[in-house]
Structure formats: C-alpha cells, structure tokens
Amino acid sequence: MIAAPAPLAARAALQPGAFHAQAHAAAQAAPFLRFDGVAIRLGGREILSPTSFGVARGEFVCIVGPSGCGKTTLLRAASGLVTASAGEVRRNGVKMTEPSREVAFVFQDYGRALLPWRTVEGNVSLALEAAGVPASERAPRIADVLGKVGLARHAHKFPVQLSGGMQQRAQIARCLAQKPELMMMDEPFGALDALTRQSLQDELARLVREDGLTVLFVTHDLEEAIYLGDRVIALQANPGPGRPSLARMIDVKIPRPRDQLSTKEHPEYLHLRRELFAFIEQGHD
User: Going by C-beta distance under 8 Å and a sequence separation of 6 or more, which residues neighbour residue 127?
Assistant: First the structure.
C-alpha cells in the first residue's frame, strides 16, 4: 500500500527557502505540479502505472527506485517530453503537452549536454539565444549564473578543458540562465567522484534556496536523496494490477541547512536510510 506523506509542520520554523506547513497545505489543494493518474506505456509495456501526487512550489522532491522502474520516464512526462498514455501532468493548473522554457532539464551525461565547440559562456548563452534574449542583455546574465556556480574564472574555457564537476556546473548554469520555475535533474551527479559529488550537492541546495526553485531529482543514491530532499518518492519495478509504481512517499524532516557530516549522523537520517535500503532490497512495499 502507498504510505501517506508525514505532516510537514516541522518545516515551518526553518529559514527562507525551506518548506512551510501553510504552503504545503495550500499545495495539497492546488499544487504547483500535479501528477493525476499518470500512466505510461512504451512498446506495449507498462513503464509507469497510474501515479498521482502533487509537488508544492519551492519543494525539492527526490525520486528513487530500482533500474527500469520509470524514474526518468516520470521526469520526461513532467517536462512535456513524453506524452502520458493515461492521466495528465499539470503545472500551475495548465496541462503539460510540450516542453516549456519555464522547465529546465539537467542530464546525467554532462559531456554530451555541452557543445564542445562553444566555450562555457557560449554554452550558457544557448539558453538565452533560444529564449530570444537580446545580445546586449546576455553578458550580465551569463556572468551572474557563472558566478553562482563558481565558474566565473572559467568562462572562456571549452568543455574539454574542464573537469567533470565543472562541466556539470556549466550545464546547471545554462539551465539557471533560463530562469526556470521547475528544474528536472536526472542523476546529475552519478558519474562524479565522491568529493565532487558532495560539493555539488551542497552547491545545488544553496542555489535552490537562493532562487526558490522547485526540483524533481532522480537518483540511485538513497543517501543523496535523503540529504537533498524535502520528500523522497520511491518507485517499484514491474508495475501492474495490485502493484502501483508509487510505493513510498516519505517526508524528510531534517533541518536545513544540511551538512555532510552532522546531517548524516542525525537520527532521522539514519532511520530513513534504513527504511529506504530495506525497500530497495526487498523489491516491494
């Protein structure tokens, strides 16, 4: 059975950018992003069984589950890149039927996401060019987002001259340049080493707080999901009658800002890690 999300009142006392109980209560009635009975079938196979949940504005929701359970497909449906076989996705009450500039997508393969013949600032400029931003207005916006992700001194370098972590920062900067309302992130740190990954986790959390972004974040790393998320949604493989895709919905009531050391020693963090690992190992709810 699907576990109902725990109350979010504990977030009410947190700093700006954190989730507040009143905002969540309003989101339950009219969420910023709403999945309403979304099912997806590809090649005659049900990838995602009818799934319903809401995401409040400013919420950071992590999606976990075994390979092939439909995590990336769910993101693509929410981005308008995949059409639902049944049900619908609505953002601000409007049905998502095609990609939108208000929705940015950060891919795992940062190497292929960047154009190798463009510099860092040239890659970031792509988002502004696509949005029709006048050339005279691009430079300050590019400088702003590169400063936010720590690439100001690397603006004139090409992707091949950057480390993996810096390339992913460049991709995130390009997405931020769109000034999106919603950020989709598909295992963005999966190919990075542990230290770089931790650094970018903290950097992303800071950017989300500062820009008030709403984030759907797919990861195979359960610890990453708990560390970053306001909520964790767990999907299970092989959906069908009596076996819904959405198997767990867990509220993360750990105070923000979080820290790579103290947060991971927090009793709630340890409890949720055990719960999610048990879920993945069992392969069912």
Answer: 174, 175, 177, 178
Q: How confident is the model at residue 224 (pLDDT cuts 50, 70, 90)?
A: very high
d(CA 215, CA 225): 12
8 A C-beta contact, residue 232 and residue 64: yes
User: Which of the 8 DSSP states describes residue 264?
Assistant: G
User: CA dist 189 to 110, 111, 217, 238, Å?
Assistant: 9, 12, 10, 26
pTM recorded for the entire structure: 0.85
Cβ(235)–Cβ(246) under 8 Å?
Answer: yes
Tokens representing residue 93 in the block = 């009450």
Place of tokens 């560390």: 227
Overall CATH class of domain 9-102+185-282: alpha beta
Reading the block at residue 209, the tokens are 């707080």
Q: Which residue ranges make up each domain of the chain?
A: 9-102+185-282, 114-179
